[in-house]
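Contributing new records

If you add data, match the layout below exactly. Sequence lines come first and carry their own label; structure lines follow with theirs. Keep one chain per record. Anything else will be rejected by the validation script.
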Amino acid sequence: MLRTVPELAYAFGLPGLVARASQDDLDESTALAATLMTLGSCVREGLDSPEKLALRQLKPRSMTRIGVHLEYEQISPHVVEVPEGEDFDGTMVRIRHAVRAARAS
């Protein structure tokens, strides 16, 4: 399992790498979807969405994978709907706002 997960993460990350490499051919304003760009990282971290990966990056690295899932359950009512074609920076902003809103309530 320790060897398989990194290999799977690499394989799932390839579409994002290919898309990023071919983005030079695209308009600069075309954002690659966060789901495509973070798939490999989500597999490596054991997470099932870009939102949870963003939460993981906003929290201390000592937070466990299970802790991320539990924390996301608490903030999920405050997470706004994903805009079409949102990049990962946008996902980070949405999750940061959700964390602040959850603290305030």
